[in-house]
Amino acid sequence: MPAENELADLIGQIYDAALKPDLWPKVLAPLSAFVGGSAASLFTKNVESKTGTSVYDVGIDPAFRQLYFDYYVKLDPLGVGQILAPIEEPVATADLISYDEFLQTRFYKEWARPQKLVDFVGAVLDRSSTTAAMFGVFRHERDGVVDAGVRERMRLVVPHVRRAVLIGRLIDLKTVQAATMSEVLDGISAGMFLLGQAGAIVHASASGRALLDRGHVVTQSSGRLAAADGQADQVLREALLAAAQGDLALGVKGIAVPLVGRDDAHYVAHVLPLNTGERRGAGRAYAAAAAVFVRKATLDVTSPAEVIAKTYKLTPTELRVLMAIVEIGGVPEVATALGVAETTVKTHLRRLFEKTSTSRQVELVKLAASYSNPLVG
Question: CATH 3.30.450.40 region(s) of the chain?
């Protein structure tokens, strides 16, 4: 296990990137080394269009990165399984496809092997019905395949990467022209509160003051920030107490504290410690120990692909073959598109027939269509 001070320093760098996104490339390098890889990336994938974007990466050859998002993203055997994995759960190649089968794919032979990459471990940070934001680390042949130690180190950092990314989304630094960090915080659309000890409000943005004035989601109680809902307030208090002890103590608390307003509106709060690293500048201006961001929760709509997979207990590979059958057609065409042998496609097709109580490909297409989109878009 890593030394506590090493992990604390890394987590501090992650949170600094929440307020200064240009730090992400510098943070990804030690993140990759910590987890045990040769390269790392923050990226998005869309299950409907089978496209993606690298937001920040390090250690990846630009030419191969371009090749991936131009073409090989559609052949990646990990794609669907990655996107539908539980949020924050590390997922490696062998979790989604037999490793021997992976070695036979065009994706491995044409994209991974030329770079001497042998494995990948990734985790979903956030997800909509069709798109996932992810963090992942590539394993070079000198690193070997993902093992228990790699998974454990991913679990230690992924919650913090997720919090930093979610908070970073709330701060549009491209449109906010600010001379100081506190002005950046004031410029965001989400309700923002800078808090001192025990949750005392020392500064609130205009959006934050508006939330306090309405009083249906958060309130001010004896000078401290409180959630209108008693149970949520207890969770928020625990997160703030942990934040006062530093980045490492916060752990997974406060990543997304659900808040239900008195009008049944749903909000979420994110807690960011301000007592270490680059964030000290924002905290010192107001003697604040933490920042809390409160935003309206977005509706989490389950994708049709996820519904089908859960309903029929499909493996990621079986779901991938089903989607290909719907979009492409026959076994030879699917095998070519996925970069696997026809016999492999036929094996998965037989399992699909068994699990869905169908016997022909046209029935699979009708079944998928009955769940409506993104499989047939």
Answer: 4-170
Q: Give CATH 1.10.10.10 domain extents, the chain.
A: 304-370
CATH code for the part of the protein at 304-370: 1.10.10.10
pLDDT in tens, 206-236: 788 888 998 889 999 888 899 888 888 888 8
Kindly report, as residue ranges, where domains of CATH 3.30.450.20 are found in the chain. 183-296
The CATH code belonging to domain 183-296 is 3.30.450.20
Determine the Cα–Cα distance for residues 258 and 242; give it in Å rounded to an integer.
Answer: 17
Lowest mean pLDDT among 7-16, 178-187, 247-256: 178-187
With beta carbons less than 8 A apart as the criterion, state whether 354 and 360 touch: no
pTM: 0.70
Q: Write down the H helix ranges in the chain.
A: 4-19, 24-35, 62-70, 79-84, 93-96, 99-102, 106, 148-170, 181-186, 206-214, 230-244, 247-250, 280-284, 304-312, 316-327, 331-338, 342-356, 361-370
| pLDDT tens by residue, 230-242 | 888 888 888 888 7
Task: Please name the amino acid found at residue 228.
Answer: A
Tell me the pLDDT tens digit for each residue of 328-377: 777 887 787 777 788 888 988 899 999 989 888 878 877 877 765 433 33
Interatomic CA distance for residues 263 and 252, integer angstroms: 28
Buried b (16+ CB within 10 A) or exposed e, 16-45: bbbbbbebbeebbebbbebbbbbbbbbbbb
CATH architecture under which domain 4-170 falls:
2-Layer Sandwich (3.30)
Nearest to 57 by CA among 76, 33, 32, 83: 32
DSSP state, residue 126: E
Query: What is the three-class DSSP state of 54?
Result: strand
d(C-alpha 72, C-alpha 353), whole Å: 28
DSSP 179: S
